Amino acid sequence: MPEFLDLHGRTSKALRAAADDGMRRHGLHLGQNHLLAALWERDGRTPGEIAAELRVTTPTVVKMATRMAASGLLTRRRDERDNRLVRLWLTEEGWALREPVETERRDLEEAVLADLTGAEREHLMTALEKIHRAATALLKDSRSAD
Amino acid sequence: MPEFLDLHGRTSKALRAAADDGMRRHGLHLGQNHLLAALWERDGRTPGEIAAELRVTTPTVVKMATRMAASGLLTRRRDERDNRLVRLWLTEEGWALREPVETERRDLEEAVLADLTGAEREHLMTALEKIHRAATALLKDSRSAD
DNA sequence: CAGAAGTCGTTTGCCGTCTAATGAATGCGA
DNA sequence: TCGCATTCATTAGACGGCAAACGACTTCTG
């Protein structure tokens, strides 16, 4: 059980749980805030566009959007010019969550990094960038195309 | 969209995908290697014990064990003295995967950290430890007991 | 010794995520 | 213009996770 992978995994899970906890306070499920963030930035996007931005597959966005539509955060509407497309539009409720959720998220980031100095944070970001690049490269290797 | 949480999330996903890729090569699904690792270290453990070690809930282990039993990696057997307990025992197949999977995992760790100097790795681990502690503390705060 | 309380594994149901298959609409080439 | 390839969203099914409800067995207590 390699040290880094192990520690990273545990950290990941803890962060995930903390984030989930925070979102739940606003009636959201983990992951939904990302979808909302995409729409806050630009409303009326299509599932495919959102999936690409969130680095997630389209079915994931579709399912999540279905649940979120059911809970009144957004609505689905077909694009008038191109009927293949579906556009997601935020409801009042969806917009209303913007401030509280963004604050929650900023607070979480700050709370979690509280014990790190500025220099430590810089090094951490650099290291994660490198790891991200390396891991992504590994994936491209094993898959025929990407 | 805070920088750190965002980068960490992306890194996490990339690592997860890379690990999944590697495990798939040995016919395993992501996560099953952890359960196997627990049994390699000590065979005949109970679902509850394994769940605690993997920091996962018992139902997660139970489900995973069911699938792994179906694919012949382990067998279920009730404890003779205490009939509430169930013990999981590795099959030949389960033991056979040990070397290749542990190697795979070590290789992944090394590949992913390849661009980091020794000092960078140390700083990274320290930083992750701090973050892990902070995130865990946040969880304990919000939950009545733990 | 018998009932109450505690300890386990299992089942159920939901969420996020992925891959693969399906279906509808557009657009391009002959 | 007509058909076929392309582009989208959706559905189906699998997996890892979690929380809550359930059921079986053990242990503690009166």
Automatic annotation (TrEMBL), chains A, B:
Under the heading InterPro entries, the entry gives: HTH_MarR-typ, MarR/SlyA-like, WH-like_DNA-bd_sf, WH_DNA-bd_sf
List each copy of the HTH marR-type domain by range.
Answer: 1-133
* PROSITE patterns assigned to the protein according to its UniProt record, in alphabetical order: HTH_MARR_2 (PS50995)
Q: Name one Pfam family in it.
A: MarR
Protein name, as recorded:
MarR family transcriptional regulator
